[in-house]
Specification:
mainly alpha; 2 domains; transmembrane; membrane; elongated; 3 helices; transmembrane helix; 6% strand
C-alpha cells in the first residue's frame, strides 16, 4: 500500500518517502514524534542538570566544608538519615510482602 503525503512546506505530493523530494521537509508522523520525544528528553535532562547545579542538597554543599567539625557533623547527620531511610524501606518492603 502506497502512502501519498502532501508536503506542508512546498505542496508537492510524495509517495512512500519520509522526506519531501522537493524541499527535504520531514513528512513521516512517526519520525516527527520520535524527534519530538528525543528533543523533550534532552530538554528535561538539561533542566534537571541546571536545577542540580543551582540548588545542591545540604549534604552536597557542606560535605567538603573547610572546617573539620562541620564536615564531621554533616557526615554523621547524613549517616543517621541513610539509616533511617533504610529502616523505612525495609518496613515498607515487609508490609508489602505480608499483605501480598
Amino acid at each position: 500500500m502506497s502512502s501519498h503525503i502532501k508536503c506542508p512546506n512546498c505542496g508537492v505530493y510524495n509517495t512512500n518517502v519520509d522526506y519531501c523530494t522537493n524541499c527535504n521537509t520531514l513528512l513521516s508522523p512517526k519520525k516527527r514524534r520520535e524527534l519530538a520525544q528525543a528533543k523533550q528528553l534532552e530538554e528535561r535532562r538539561e533542566r534537571e542538570r541546571i536545577q542540580k547545579e543551582k540548588s545542591p542538597s545540604f549534604y552536597e554543599r557542606h560535605k567538603d566544608h573547610r572546617f573539620l567539625i562541620v564536615r564531621v557533623f554533616v557526615k554523621i547527620i547524613h549517616s543517621i538519615w541513610m539509616g533511617f531511610m533504610a529502616i523505612g524501606m525495609f518496613i515498607a518492603w515487609l508490609v508489602s510482602t505480608v499483605v501480598a
